[in-house]
Amino acid sequence: MKNRRLITTGLLGFSLLICQPILGQADQVASQSRKPTQSEMAYIPGGQYTPLFKDSTASPIVGPFLLDRYAVTNRQYHTFTQHNPKWSKDNIKSVFSDEKYLQHMNPLTLDTRAEAPVTNVSWFSARAYCKSMGKRLPSLDEWEYVAQASGTNRNGRNDPAHRQKILEWYSRPTGSLLPNVKDTPTNYWGVYGMHGVIWELVNDFNTALVTGESRGDTQLELSLFCGAGAVSSVDPGDYTAFMRYALRSSYRAAYTMRSLGFRCARDTNQH
Amino acid sequence: MSRLTSYTSISGIEHIEIKDNEKIKFIFLLKNAISESITHYAKNMLREFYRHHKRRTTQTIKREILNPHSQWIKMFATGFLTLILPLSSTCSFAELPDDSVYHAESEWRDQNNNEITISALQGKVQVIAFVYTYCQHSCPVILSKLRNIEKKISSSDITAVQFTLVSLDPERDSPELLKRYMQEHDLDECRWVMLNGNPDDVIEFSALLGVRYRPMNNDKKDIAHSNMITVLDKQGKINYQMKGLNEGPEEAVSNILELVLSDIEGENTLSSANCPQTANN
User: B101-280: what fold?
Assistant: First the structure.
């Protein structure tokens, strides 16, 4: 009996010990931070940028920052889910993703489509991936700034031929097979596949305030958004940017799509 | 047997049933908890165990399912059930549904500069809105909507409800400013809390609730944002959202009252920390 009491006391001590870290909400996701090599991220020097929707006369300065040259691939994302089981297909919580999360991912995908961009990921999961790499999702302005470059110019917005090329892709339905990330067109910054392959997630997608209900209408619902009347578009000719904004404004952070992927960014001062 | 039941009744867990096939899993988890990373597995184990057993209501622990040949497992299991389970509830360990926003792991500061995790909001029905203290247009309207809701809930029901205002501008809205804002607007700390978090966590929480916002470039640095009021149940599931300012409080109130009466268990330590009345009890 005495022995038993001793053990019980020991157990009390043990249970207190293991309760301690639970109280502290210890973060069990190990950060696999590593330095990017020159080949995997492009340096984007700071620049003036005119967003599609602007709320003042001043154009924001974007950057400098680093952006992944390629979208995150099936192989890379699969490795991430193996190290972080919380984000695997079986374990992900429905609050972080809809039921189509990674639905394309199977041994065959990993065999034949390993280098194609990963899709069917949610905003939450994409953020977690970037975080695990010591990176972050690019901001909307950063992404759009890089996306406005054509193959030869840092601003291809006013190049009708460049616009037309992009528009053609946007009017095409998504093919069943996505190309390998390295086989996609590169732009002025040496960043691959910004157009023509997948839609990409940005960190502050929810700053796009166009309401989902009023289709084709860029007027903001004044009763829904405080200060919304001050935001208006500056370049009604930039159709593809409108399409991206329309998608972002109807997007919810747990949604996945078979044509929606991402790439990560990083601050230049963070190493 | 008598020892087991007496322990369990002390700890308040009288109705637990363990099935045979779950025994193996339980022991496996237990073994892992010892040999592998204790924190990680113990956390999962507790969650697992809770999920399986908390909801059962009919039977007491069956002694025979514990291996009669292995004394130490019996001892350990007894200790586990009597000591860890009650402790786990102190650690706010209620079983969370998969669609609970409390799966987020963000950390915040309240108006008294207390650190709290987002999951500490569980246990109460939460009525949540995003504001910033120098907002002059819609935020006062949101606040008056919330107070309208507050007034329509009886004093006995209101103890299970908390009104949470999340700052959209954590850099300017320091805990001190939040405190002053609460005092100026006469918000009772027993029922109201204001949260300051890092910008990344603010955007995550807003995304969880479907709130949109956008810092403006005007002189006052206003923030355009959804005028959304969200009602979360005690476990953090979105129950109701008032999307615009044109809706009346009736629907929100009826939803809140329904949730107040729901018997989902959970702990809330947040308000009692800030609330003098409760703290004195």
Answer: Glutaredoxin (3.40.30)
